[in-house]
Write a structure and sequence with these properties.
Blueprint (H helix, E strand, L loop, with lengths): L9 H28 L14 H27 L3 H24 L9 H17 L2 H28 L4 H24 L6 H23 L1
Helix pairs in contact: 1-4, 2-3, 2-4, 2-5, 2-7, 4-5, 5-6, 5-7
This protein binds fe (ii) ion (2 copies).
């Protein structure tokens, strides 16, 4: 399928998509059990006691961190570049920590119902640029993390302004600082300035991120 790029990735990507379908069936099965049983919230902050705007924000954070984990999984599935693999492996570790943190902040019943979609979208947001080399990967990560920095900053500002949930503001600020580090590292590794096509791709990534957050806030 991608032989013209001398990259044999078609089988691994389709097997990953197959695994995602199994994940999707499992995910919705668990949700059905929760809806039927109305299981008590086990999250650290008991997210149902938080204001609805904050639950929506945390839902979008959790969905975003899930997407971030899968972006790096997508990169690692495709790339054979040693430096990129080191970059993606280190970032993946941080994103897994962020995701685990978010899972302590929001109960399963308040998580986005589109989690399988965020996993797939994240995977292809990492795998597609990885087909085209290191520069496209770094530009994509720079674009994603620029968006995430602003997303977390507006939450921190609102939490501090409302003088409530200051501890939560600190937690989100910690994640934001990691994302800024990821953004700056990606920018530092860029081999050359992005051309028009790559800029268009990065715009699409930012557009997709904005819309994904809007959907995840809703449900
Ligand atoms: Fe993150
Ligand atoms: Fe990140």
């Amino acid at each position: 399928m991608f032989s013209w790029l001398n990259i044999e990735i078609d089988v691994s990507i389709s097997s990953a998509a197959y695994i995602e379908w199994i994940n999707l069936v499992f995910f919705y099965s668990v949700h059905v059990v929760i809806w039927v049983a109305d299981t008590e919230n086990t999250s650290l902050l008991h997210s149902r006691k938080l204001p609805s705007w904050l639950i929506a924000e945390l839902r979008s954070d959790h969905a975003g961190e899930m997407g971030a984990v899968y972006i790096y999984k997508g990169i690692l599935r495709v790339t054979r570049d040693t430096r990129v693999r080191q970059f993606a492996t280190q970032h993946l570790k941080t994103e897994v920590k962020h995701l685990e943190l978010m899972e302590t902040l929001i109960g399963l019943e308040d998580q986005s119902i589109f989690i399988p979609l965020w996993r797939l979208a994240g995977f292809f947001t990492g795998a597609i640029p990885a087909l085209f080399g290191a520069n496209v990967i770094y530009a994509t990560i720079h674009s994603v993390e620029t968006f995430v920095d602003k997303h977390y900053q507006q939450q921190v500002d609102r939490l501090l302004n409302e003088l409530e949930h200051k501890e939560l503001a600190k937690v989100i600020e910690g994640c934001r600082q990691d994302e800024v580090q990821h953004r700056d590292e990606a920018k530092g590794f860029l081999l050359r300035s992005p051309g028009p096509l790559l800029r268009a791709w990065c715009w699409l990534v930012g557009f997709g991120s904005r819309n994904a957050v809007a959907v995840a806030r809703w449900r």
